[in-house]
Amino acid sequence: MGPQSRWAASGFGWHNGQFPQKSALASPVLLERGAPFVKVRLGIVAKGLGLDTQTSIALAALAPFVAAVLAPAIHHLLGRLSGYVLALVPLGIFYVLLGFVDTIAAGNSVSVAIGWVPAYGLDLSFHLDGLSLVFALTISGIGALIVLYSGAYLAGHRHQGRFFAFILAFMGAMLGLVLADSLLALFLFWELTSVTSFLLIGFDHARQAARRAAIQALVITNIGGMALLAGAVLVHQLTGSWEMSAVRAMGQGLQEHALYGVVLALFVVAAFTKSAQVPLHFWLPNAMEAPTPVSAFLHSATMVQAGVYLLARMTPVLGGTTVWTMLLVGFGAVTLLWGALAAIKQTDLKQMLAQTTLASLGLLVLLIGLGSTYAIAAMMIYFVAHALYKAALFMVVGAIDHETGTRDITALGGLADKMPVSFIGAALAALSMVGLPLTVGYFAKEEMYLGVMGGDWQLIATLVVLVAGNALLAGVALLVMIRPFLGETVPTPKSAHEAPVAMLAGPILLGGLGVVAGVMPDGVGVLVAEPGGAAILGETVKTHLTLVLDIASPLLWLSALTWALGILVYRQADTMRTLLRRVDHKLGWNADKVFDAAMFGLIRFAGAVTRVLHHGRLELYLVAVFAAMGLALFVPMLTLNGLAWMSLPEELGQWSNKVGLGSLRIYEWGVVVLAVAGLVAVLLSRTRLVAILSLGVQGAALALIFLLFGAPDLAFTQLMVEVLAVVILTFVMTRLRLDDRDPRPFEDLARDGMLALFCGLGVALLLMQVLSGTLDTRLSDLFTATSVPIAHGHNIVNVILVDYRGFDTLGEISVVMGAGLAILALLRRRKKVDAAGKAAP
């Protein structure tokens, strides 16, 4: 008998001696694309609502954003009832998604594509399978309770309407992330979770700690967002598709490509930043500066689970290799133990739960890295178990803090008498976290142990890590359940009493659901583990979880060892906390301090660069601009042999004849002389006013040149611009307190003069080169042929400006408008300064 069949009996989770059989999945149910809506409907109807498939999925992905826009107005109108009303939105999404359970459980998947940018072949596509459905149901179901909880927790807060908007947008971003099939849509929703979490973590923006935590979370997760974007683009380049379902259908061919390592690194970095794997973990505990409803939602079903979802989703494409397994199992194991030990070190209940979230995320990543059918089934079950008990425990901690004024575990005790319902919710959730029988947490633990039984030393080491990590988590669960509620009553800052009903619904329902799922293991297997595992592995997964006790099962004894070690951790928690804090004190530095040092160094570097590049001296800015312009003119001509035509004097003469310099009439030469005279006058003028007028003379001469050579509309435009320029410059100069002259040292004059000659010569040589070549009339021919039939304009110049180059014209108008507003602001500011100076005496 092999090791797998030998250990098929799993205590309360008997598998009937059978392991999952591999077979081809049922074909996905794919909806045809419409413009913009889907044309072919499935016979699937959202339960009780009669909605077609596309409407149902679009509603699930986009409805929270609509609710977020309306939330402040709804709160303004309904006040304390707004939480109950807004909770109907995620509840409705949950109800709609339930309509897909039977179809997904049968092995089907549902795809919907809505035209997004059809010209580039981009669709806003959604894909519903076992993985995305489990995540979406968890997000929407817990989200409904979170919104309800927030209505009571933040009752009376002057920004509660804004908070509802943020939390609903956060929910919508996460739902869109798990439902998206397009890699670009996934990236869009991925970044939206970062932005909305930034707003939620920094909600109490008056506190510096909240602002710092929000910025830290945004910086770290955005690094992962950029890695995800690069990975998505690279996958598209290698596979030719943006759709993850299409990429997964290609199998593991990407692993054979030379760039597999780069793709893997980009997706792993994205996942590790979002799901807070060591050493990118430090932002997550600091996110506890957010209000408790945010912590409960973020740590159970939303943002931190995005990285886990990404790794699970990309397993068929990137998973199964040695480097994949080493990275995920290695970092997952370290994160599991790190977070579990860090939780023991804390006394703040929220921080304890936050650190256990780190441990749980490491555990999920480790299971994905193992990649076996049992490990993946355990991952799916543990995800649900963790979401249920973690959201419930955070809500209980929020209720304790709300009603007692503290969440320090050393300052709490005996609350069971005063908060009995909260204690029941905490007990139900904590028992699932411990992994006791008749809870869904038990089956998750059994499945993960089963996945590493009877293997080589690496699997044995992994088993040791799992037992140690689960024991530490069990000890923390006992601490959270027992210390605040049992024992001697401790005086608290506020007189303790039971929380409002809206704050109790979540812990009771979620804790109770963890027990209900524990006594209905068949449903957990059929509705969670099997469809989710099939979506991840691309093969049929069968589980046979039942409530059968086998005393002889090694898995049952491993569970007993875990519970015994958990009790030991609970009893020695104070000693362990002291030792761990001494170690911290000896080390001195941690990842959080490294981040602060890095940010401080970045700010100092940015300041130094700013002082060099943005020194405030306009003349140096202009020098840099024109120097760059001169290089842009000469470098291409020199490198591309563009000045070779000047080597022979006769060729220069041929160019002169070609452009018609020898055929100019006397009055045309007169206009040229006038332009040159204006230029000389500008250079020799001793006052600013004379320079402005001389510049106007040169501009007027240029307008005459346009007129003489057949461009009357351009000549008129040039003349109007010159008149306005002279008037405006004269007006501005007379209002500003400037000297009549602008004395400058000789070195500045030499520098500016050489730069002017450099740029002028470059422009002249470039124009001469262009005019010496053959005129390509394809573009002008296009304008001539299409200006009337397409743009309906006979004036080709106007058509070019308004239609063909409409955005260029808009940009030019915007620049002129911005310059005008800036000048107006300067003049008004100067006027106020003058008035203040006169009034001072």
TrEMBL record:
Residues 120-164 form the NADH-Ubiquinone oxidoreductase (complex I) chain 5 N-terminal domain. Residues 673-737 form the MrpA C-terminal/MbhD domain. It is a multi-pass membrane protein. Keywords: Antiport, Cell membrane, Ion transport, Membrane, Transmembrane, Transmembrane helix, Transport. Residues 180-465 form the NADH:quinone oxidoreductase/Mrp antiporter transmembrane domain. Pfam families: MbhD, MbhE, Proton_antipo_M, Proton_antipo_N. Residues 750-831 form the MrpA C-terminal/MbhE domain. The chain crosses the membrane at residues 57-78, 85-110, 130-151, 163-180, 186-203, 215-237, 257-273, 294-312, 324-344, 356-375, 381-400, 421-444, 459-480, 501-520, 551-570, 620-646, 666-684, 689-709, 715-733, 754-772, 809-827. It is found in: Cell membrane; Membrane. GO terms for molecular function: antiporter activity. Its main location: membrane. This is Na(+)/H(+) antiporter subunit A. It comes from Devosia equisanguinis. The gene is mrpA_2.
